[in-house]
Amino acid sequence: MRIERLDLLAFGPFTDLSLSLEAPGLHIVFGPNEAGKSTALHALDQLFYGIDWRSPYDFVHAKPDLRLGAAVRGDDGGVVEFVRLKRRGNSLVDADGRPLDESTLLRLLNGVDRATFRSTFALDLEELQRGGQELLEGRGELGEALLSAQSSHDLGALRRALEERRDALFLRQGQKPLINQAIKRYSELTRVVRDAQVLPANYQSTRAAAAAAEKREEELRQRLDGRRAELVRLQRLRQVLPSLAERARKLERLRELEAEGPLAPAGFAERLPDVERRLRAAGEALRTVADDIAAKQEELDGLTVDERLLDAAAETERLSQSRERIEADERRLATLDREAAQLRRQARDALREVRPEASLDEPAAFTVDRAARDRVSTLAEDYADLRTRLDDARDEVARRRHHHEAEQRRLEELPDPEDGAAVAAALDAVPAALLDELDSAADAVHEAAAARERVVAEAGWDSADVAALAAAHAPSREQVTAHRDRQRDNAREQERAARECARLRAELAEERLRMEELTRDETVPTEDALEQARRSRDALWRRVRDGGTDGETLAAYERAVDRADGLADRALAGAQRIVERQRTRQRIAELENLLEHAEAGAAALREVADDLAARWRELWPDPVLPAPDLDAAETVLDRLADLRHHHQEHTAAARRLSDRRDRAAAHAERLGRVLREAGLEVPTVSPADSGEGRIGPLLRELREIAAAELARRDRAARDRESQRRSVAEAERSLTAARAKFDSVNEAMLAWKERWRPVAASLDLSDDRLPREVLGDLDQLSRVASLAAEAELRTAEAEELRCGITVFHDAVRAVLDACGVAVPDTAGERHRELEALRKRAEETDERERRRRTLTGDLDRLQGQRRERHAQRDSAETELARMCEETGVASVAELRAAIARSTAAAKLREDVELLSTTIAKAWDGGVAAAEDEAAEVDQDALPSRLQRLEEEIAALEDERTRALRELQEARAALERIDGSSQAALAAQEREEVLAQLSEAAEEHTRLVLAHAILVRCMEEHRQANQDPILGRAQNLFGTLTGGRFRELRAETSEDGATVLLARRDSGELLGMDLLSEGTRDQLYLALRLASLERYAAEGRSMPFVLDDVFMTFDEERTAAGLRVLDDLADRFQPVVFTHHAHLADLARDVLPEDRVHVHRLRRFTPGARTAADGPSPAAVSARSADPPERRCRECGSSFVHRGRGRPPARCPECR
């Protein structure tokens, strides 16, 4: 069963909210605190099994208006839409509002009742952690772990509680348990009764009555046992009926399949798709091969080849490869001819510029001696360097002279610095740390005052009373503690005295009521009435004895004797009542005396309390510090101690501050006087500056002025000394510049002496500059270079011209051999050669293609033969399969295979259901079917209800019979003449009644314990292998592969326990696993158990509420993947108020497998009904505490309790 849509129409904070849950995969319902997440989770239970009559979810909608709806898909694929209303009858209606039979929903629930749904198909964080704790407390006992994982019941705690209560009732060798003590007391009382009892005449009738009562009680007990056994049998039958119905339906479907036609042999379901695939592949391959053969043959027929072009292809290719080179050579030849002519023209023009009369045909006219040119070049460089150095030296002399004159003027302009020794002495006399100490003292005063004011404000005292509070008298902590102990002792004594007085008053009232009842009992005479009757009888007897024999006196005497005897008989018969009356009277007197003493003691304790209160006030004598509440006294003492501490600190800091201010004032006055004597205008120091706290800034200002003045004077002295050094340096620089100028000038004169002979050797005037002569020589060298370059171009051109001629002769021969007319020009011959090369390439390509097509045709013919053989083989195998199955066509074969697959699945389901039924019903499936056939299933619920009512009535009747039996036995025991026997017999019956109840309870506990242990063991044996194997895989996934095996081992006490093996091979018990790992193991066992429900056809939605709170991110992701893997077997729905869980699910699961439903935060508003505000609204108006934000998850919450507000919301706590 799956929920496709959940409609929260009017429930809790929701109005017309619909959640679509039909998509496959994992559904996450996310909402912040107060969004109604828990309400939505609880709505599933109310939807399936009815809205509670006293539902707490009426704080928005009135109770009659509550309604839930859903669209549910059953296992047969049918969808049922219904609405659940809040009413006593016909609470289930369809989508149109028409009443819907509850049996429709019961069939969808597959026999899962409310208790099973809550305990098995719902899991929250508390239950998950409790399950992990049960694994620890049960020390891994396997049967308990498997059965607990199937539901939320704490079976370990239940077993321990049964054992503790059983042992508290009876121990075989014990004496303290209740039954042991009762048996001992019963034996003692029986001995007392036997010793004091005297059998009367009516003993036999009383004994017969007791025997009859005992027989009736035995008959009722047997009838009750029979009804209880019948109830258990029918309840077990109701549980197994869905499985029987499912098994019958599957068997009927199996017979229908067998009747529809033959079933295919095993393995045909896998063989048929393979054979058909081979057949289709062979047919497609044949068609493809045929198409390829036709296409290639057509292409081969259209190919033609020119043999002349094939013969000339190699030469054509060779010439084509050389063509680009030849074309480049032709372009290069033209360039060389042009460049040679240009170079000769440039050489002639350059020669005319230097020697107009010379010619290029005379090389001697422009040949330059290399050595002569180098000498000219060297002298030219020397001249340029000397000229530059000489100009620089002359400029340097002028610049140094101007600089020296300027420095001398600046020195003369500087003032003479004054002596600052007095100012420096006054400034040095001020301690460096004085201002810091002054600031620190002022800060200390402010801090102490602020701390003192803070303590006063927190305590609620008047700040004007600080000094009085600091000096106020207060008790010591020992006095407070001693007084508190005395007051608490007095309070406890008063409370004890009040309880004692109340108890005595209640007991006295009960005894007085009992006395009234005993006194109103007219069947038992009072002692006064019996004494008066005896006195009347004795008086008449004396009259008779004294001679009063008249008839009236005798008659009166006989009546008095009869009356006294009657009263005596009645008193004898009611001896027990008389004894009780006397005992009650004595008890009343005793209680009155005790009550009087108790009330006097209580009054004395109240006086002591008043005296303690007065003494407490005396401990706080000062009016500024009144006596606080005793519970707040230590807080007041703490604050008073803080106040005194801060007050002392403030006083000491004020003294330090006054001392520092006085010292600062003295230094400021002296420094100001010295500065004024130095001619500076500075502020004066007045006495008010010291008192008002302005001395610190004033002293700091004076120190800054003095420091600035000293710095100014020191700077002036340094400036004058520095300027003197600058004048001396400028004078030295001027002398050096003049010496450098003289040295360079002498070098220039020496150069002129070397230049004269060189100019004469070149037939030049010595007044020409070396650079001009060097230019002429370079021009002649350029003429020689241009002439040589022109000769090189001419030689290269002749070589290229020969190669071009050979190439064109070869081209003419190839063109002529291929029948192409030879063009006259070189360009046309190049174009014809390129066209011939392309034709040759096309011809060669057609030849290669012809050979390729011929080979392809041969290969395709072979493939066609192979595909024919494959198709024939597949057709033969398909025919053989049809023959083995007994069908005539492939379609019938497919149908037979489908029937065979469905039949195998049905047989598997029937076997599983049979196993489940055999485990649940003694006698197996046949016995369960026989029993189910004899029962009207529609009338079974009413029959169970009648049985429960009959059992309740029989239990009441048996209780009355037991009471009658006890009374009969008590009457039998009381038939004697002794009040001691009556009292002992009554007490013995009371002990017997207690013993009977305790023995019956002990028997139930023993049976319940044995049944629980047996059920756990049977469940373990039946489910250990399938559930443990599946849980092992789930546990490994949930822990990220850190645990690889779950093993069942036998412990020392013989129990089968569960152990977990790490990936390292270490085998661990439950006590060695971490808390989170035990939680994940419990989750794995629960999920494995749910898969068993799904296999039995009883799948239900599985609801999880914030179970991943204790998982880290890696294991949370693993848990989400596990739930997604199981989502196809049952429907997991996760409720959470943590947004990161939804984000993580989107990251680790495919987009179409995770579906997040968001709930908005609920804002309280008006109720929809007119019956007044809801309790939540009234509470919200009466108290509106501020919202707080959770430190862990960030959500808002409201703290409405006492004490300090918590830092985390209730969910995170």
TrEMBL record:
Biased composition (Basic and acidic residues): 397-413, 480-497, 834-847, 856-877
Species in which this protein is naturally found: Thermobifida halotolerans
Record Pfam families: AAA_27
Coiled-coil regions listed: 203-254, 312-396, 581-608, 713-747, 937-1005
Position of the signal peptide: none
Record keyword Coiled coil present: yes
Region: Disordered, residue numbers: 397-417, 472-497, 834-877, 1165-1213
Classification lineage: Bacteria, Bacillati, Actinomycetota, Actinomycetes, Streptosporangiales
Protein name: AAA family ATPase
Domain spans labelled YhaN AAA: 1-202
Keywords tagged on the record: Coiled coil
